[in-house]
Design goal:
Layout lengths: L9 H9 L3 E3 L8 E6 L3 E8 L4 E6 L3 E13 L6 E2 L1 E3 L3 E6 L2 E4 L3 E7 L4
């Protein structure tokens, strides 16, 4: 029998993702910006509605100019998703124009709070 990597099971994903550094979008305010450095790109996520993940996103090859999108959450790259949460070591899942875009793994997160 072949061993399945721990993060591929629901229990393993829950255990591993809870031990990672990250941020819950709902704890942020509208107009805060999440600066996410991934393995391959930098992304700027200007939050319009932290509860739903609606944002303007710029960065990477898909978002050369700011694009309205929904940040769904974080994944290891499979089908399990931690909704509304961005974590170091995980990939960000973004939906826009009927497409699902998954970034390379996040290396660093920085929050810039709005002054409003």
């Amino acid at each position: 029998m072949q061993n399945i990597p721990r993060y591929c099971s629901l229990d393993g994903f829950t255990e591993l993702s809870s031990s990672l550094d990250g941020v819950a979008l709902r704890t942020l305010a509208p107009f805060d910006t999440v600066c996410a450095r991934t393995l391959n790109n930098d992304y700027y996520i200007f939050l319009l509605d932290p509860e739903t993940g609606k944002a303007l996103i710029q960065g990477g090859r898909y978002f050369a100019e700011p694009v309205e999108a929904t940040v769904s959450g974080s994944t290891f790259g499979g089908c399990m998703l931690k909704m509304g949460w961005l974590g170091i070591g995980l990939r960000i899942e973004i939906c826009t124009g009927g497409q699902r875009i998954v970034t390379s793994p996040v290396r660093a997160l920085h929050i810039e709070h709005s002054d409003s």
